[in-house]
Amino acid sequence: MRGAACRIRQDSCTIRQDFASAAPNTSTMKSDADTQELLARLTAQFLRRTPSDGETTTIVPGLTLMRLSGPTVVQRGMLKPSFCVVAQGEKIGQAGADTTIRYSAGQFLASSINMPVAGQVLHASKARPYLAAVFELCPADVLSVLADAKIQVDATAPCCPATFVGTADARLLDVVLRSVSSLDDEREARFFAPLLRRELIYRLVTGPSAFAVAQSALQSRPDDGVGRAVEWIKTHFAQPLVIDELAKHVNMSTSSLHHKFKATVMMGPLQYQKRLRLEEARRLLLSGLADATRAAFDVGYESPSQFIREYRRLFGTSPMRDVKRMRDGARTAHLG
After folding, report:
1. pLDDT tens digits for range 231-284
2. What's the 3-state SS for the chain?
3. pTM for the structure as a whole
4. Range 32-39 contact pairs with CB under 8 angstroms and sequence separation of 24 or more
5. Is CB count within 10 Å lower at the N or C end of the chain?
6. 148 Cβ contact list (under 8 Å, min separation 6)
7. Domains of the chain, start order
8. pLDDT score recorded for residue 154
9. pLDDT above 90 (res 333)
10. In the sheet where 90-95 sits, what is the strand order?
């Protein structure tokens, strides 16, 4: 399909995938200029509100600002359901088993489930630090906006990844800018935060990445299908996992569960359980609540030696050396 680009459109209040010819126009050029202006204003706001590297927790629950003044080492962990928009700098990482993700200024990383990821800042310096805003969002928030706006999702569409990169258009960046700017006044920030969050979601489900945002929220619902399977594994990760029993629990066939789970989570159920176990073991070790043997048993391993092998395979070194490395101050970044 030469000269065509995948596009999202909203027809008859239904979000669907479509293909249309890509033809530049003056409105697109104006939009690009608006986007660059908004990114510059966002950068100025971030620099003023992040006096040092790391995470800056704001007075608005669920809104965190990030600043990093140089490239970082790879950081592994679980990405919470969230929306992270970059104002300056670039990151590269991996979501699921082996899906590469790369995003920079004017782009965002979104996830509708707790997703195993790895990431590192590529381009950043003291003069031009990596700057980003992270908004916690859950599928219920997105589904609520879809319902209130009377926007339907094409139920016949195939599953799409629950974690993905998108482009932030000018309307979306404007909401982010107003959210950050409101932090000057605590009462104003707290009052407008719920309204701005809903507007943010509305811009996401009516913008260039509408299909991915809406579809990932729909298929990640904790009360149905893959979303229900994800929730069960998160709650019972230390227990033995039998795929046939999990499929019955979520009212799916075993083959359908495998196919849809991998399409959504970008890894199989057993891989997802293993990542949850190893991430929790790492948390226990780092907090000093357990040694390697105790952590192995606590997260469901029957063999400490198997635990150590799988821990080394994921994190690149033994559990105790990994903890020492992290405590010694290895430079890391937020997963968003």
Report:
1. 999 999 999 999 999 999 999 999 999 999 999 999 999 999 999 999 999 999
2. CCCEEEEEEEECCEEEEEEEECCCCHHHHHHHHHHHHHHHHHHHHHHHHCCCCEEEECCCCCEEEEEECCCCCCEEEEECCEEEEEEECEEEEEECCCEEEEEECCEEEEECCCEEEEEEEEECCCCCCEEEEEEECCHHHHHHHHHHCCCEECCCCCCCCCEEEEECCHHHHHHHHHHHHHHHCHHHHHHHHHHHHHHHHHHHHCCCCHHHHHHHHHHCCCCCHHHHHHHHHHHCCCCCCCHHHHHHHCCCCHHHHHHHHHHHHCCCHHHHHHHHHHHHHHHHHHHCCCCHHHHHHHCCCCCHHHHHHHHHHHHCCCHHHHHHHHHCCCCCCCCC
3. 0.85
4. 34/170, 35/106, 35/168, 35/169, 35/170, 35/173, 38/170, 38/173, 38/174, 38/177, 39/87, 39/88, 39/105, 39/106, 39/173
5. N
6. none
7. 4-219 (2.60.120.280), 225-327 (1.10.10.60)
8. 80
9. no
10. 75-79, 115-123, 90-95, 99-104
- Token pair in block for residue 5: 């680009």
Output the six-digit token pair for 133: 């805003």
